[in-house]
Amino acid sequence: MPNHGPLEAKPAARLLFAAGVLDLLLLYVLAGMAYPALKGPITALLPAALDRFALPIFFIVLLPPFWLITDVLAGGYSPGRLALGLGMSDSSGKHMSLPRRFTRFLGKLFCFGISGLRFGSLSHYDRLAGTVWRCPMAPPTAADLRLTFLNGKLKGRAGALGKIPGFTPDKPLRLGRDKAWSHVPLDEPSISGRHCEIVIRNGVPMIRDLGSTHGTFVNGTRIPAEKWVTLANARDFSLAKQKLALRP
Q1: Using CA atoms, how far apart are residues 17 and 150, in angstroms rounded to an integer?
Q2: Which of 207, 143, 150 is nearest to 174 (CA)?
Q3: How far apart are CA 151 and CA 183, in angstroms?
Q4: C-alpha span between 7 and 80 (Å, rounded)
Q5: Residues 14-42: pLDDT tens digits?
Q6: What is the mean pLDDT of the chain?
Q7: How far apart are CA 197 and CA 188, in angstroms?
Q8: pLDDT class of 4 with cuts at 50, 70, 90
Q9: Which of 159, 162, 150, 141 is nearest to 204 (CA)?
Q10: DSSP assignments along the chain, one per residue
Q11: Which of 161, 166, 197, 212 could staple 192 via S-S, CB 3.0–4.6 A?
Q12: What pLDDT shows up at residue 2?
């Protein structure tokens, strides 16, 4: 989930509506396939006047266990949501905890899921549980991006920007050798004290060299000082000899 960008309420609601319709159609087909084998026990439980409605009633009875499986046990993944690339998280971008998923399920059960089928806004049970819906098509937030070391003493180390102490998405991420200034202090002699900065603008990472001695490189090409350069399609970038990557 952390690799998915967060959706705003309206597009999330529309995608959830489409996913809900797909789930209902699939469940109805499955109910229809199982119904012939279960018709006898089902009709035996119903008044004779309702026999002709046995299949729709059987379908409705299947909805709560289906929601329990998909929304609680499977972490919010259903066939319709998987088809549309939808996943749920909490506001910090982490997988929703089991208590939050169960709270959401109870809210959905209370209104039988009807308030979830809306185009303009999220359901009350999504708001109650603090659900954030995510999709690969949505741009990642700064907190979703991961800084990875590709060589040197820290090769293989990686971490989400949102977990870097002192970093906030509304300000540049500072990299350099100066421990008092840098969010990511780098103990490498060729790296300047205040080497470069990275910002996220509309989901696009940008980097700026701050007049470092040995330069900042994007895909092996040195970038000019004091000029923002996009990292959107960058394979990697380097602070002098230290090679890194910034990816969802």
Answers
A1: 42
A2: 207
A3: 19
A4: 17
A5: 999 999 999 999 999 999 999 999 999 99
A6: 90
A7: 17
A8: low
A9: 141
A10: -TTSEEPPHHHHHHHHHHHHHHHHHHHHHHHHHHHHHHHHHHHHHS-GGGGGGHHHHHHHHHHHHHHIIIIIITTT--HHHHHHT-EEE-TTSSPPPHHHHHHHHHHHHHTTTGGGS-SSS--HHHHHHT-EEEETTSPPPGGG-EEEE-SSTTTT-EEEGGGSTT--TTSPEEEES-TTT-SEE---TTS-TT-EEEEEETTEEEEEE-S-SS-EEETTEEPPBT-EEE-TT-S-EEETTEEEEEE-
A11: 212
A12: 45
Print the SS3 string covering 121-163. Answer: CCCHHHHHHCCEEEECCCCCCHHHCEEEECCCCCCCCEEEHHH
What tens digit of pLDDT does each residue of 118-131 get? 777 888 899 889 89
Q: State the residue for tokens 């990642």.
A: 140
- What is the pLDDT averaged over residues 190-197? 97
Record the tokens describing residue 203, joined without a space: 């989901």
Two tokens, residue 6: 């967060």
- What length does the chain have? 248
Question: Which residue, chain included where needed, has tokens 């229809």?
Answer: 32
Helix 54-67 and helix 98-110: axis angle, to 10°? 150
d(CA 167, CA 173): 6
